[in-house]
Give the backbone structure.
Amino acid sequence: MITHLIFVGLLSLLSSSLCQACNPNILLNMDFPGNDITFLYSPDVNHCQLLCTQHPSCLFFSFIRADWTHDDRHFYCYLKSTPSGEPSAQTPVQGVTSGFSLKSCSPGPQPCLSELYQNMDFIGGDYRSLFTGDHKECQRVCTQDPACQFFTFVKQNFSNKVKYKCYLKFSWTVPRTPVIERKAGVTSGFSQKTNQTQHFDKVCQRKLFPNTDIPGSDIESLPAASPEHCQTLCSTHPRCTYFTYNRNTFVCYLKENTHEIVTRADTGTSGLPHRSCQLDDNWARVAYEGVDFNGSDIRYELMDDADTCQKTCTEDPHCQFYTYADETFFDRSYRRRCYLKRVITIPAPPKVIKVTNVVSGFSLKNCP
């Protein structure tokens, strides 16, 4: 939830800007200078536009292409916003392509990212490597692996020591709440839409260890609303072998140790991930009272109760989770507000660079 009143007016303007007409236009060799929210790496302008569309507050963007010559900022995707929803300026610049968020357009299914990128390396996110005959086989392996979201293949003529190497890579496709904290008078929860791409006949049986800590071997820590939510995060990450969840701080510690599991008595909850079975999504149906999912606001609407807020989030194709402030919230100006929220969940490389004799691309799980 936004805690400073200065943001309230910006949210209202943002809400009105999201109602503007769909503008899918791409402007070649045009820069929208300034108004940056953040930048991410992207292999092309279409992927950059998807990043902007999924970012909670991005309304337009500028993408620096491979033919940019002013400096080494290739493949930078700058996400931008203004209270009016329009760029403050448009400047012709060679090597830059700009465009607008597709939030106001009719949302389609999960995007099919079928493009192959020659002489481009997707750096980071590696969890497995193997040898394949060519980049097409590497992409097939990535598509068939439930955890793989993108890959980089090293060609035969790259070097004598590294060739025919297929690197499988991971990025989060499940929503991660940015900050979770206790706050009286609020209720938070998740959209009831399920976005599972893998479906199995067997339902997973939960394996949780109450009052147990598994110390050490941390690979990542993330906010989580419950031990079950933490278990889902661990089950999604290909390197996670077990986890520990701290209820007091709402922190989920993902751990990797394939050699041993050592437990000790503690106030936390630990557990094992699920593999090759249908994940239980009941954790996402819980309304967490007295809990605030802070940040990542798309907009807010006034409504009478948390149940209506949850229903509104579920019906909104862009909403992934929410926070509702009820009539007991300490600040009257925030009461009855339902904050709809989201984070980016499309596959996204941590970094993109130019490298000769490599090929990169994405999983084809969402393609026909």
Observations:
- The radius of gyration is 22 Å.
- The first helix runs from residue 6 to 17.
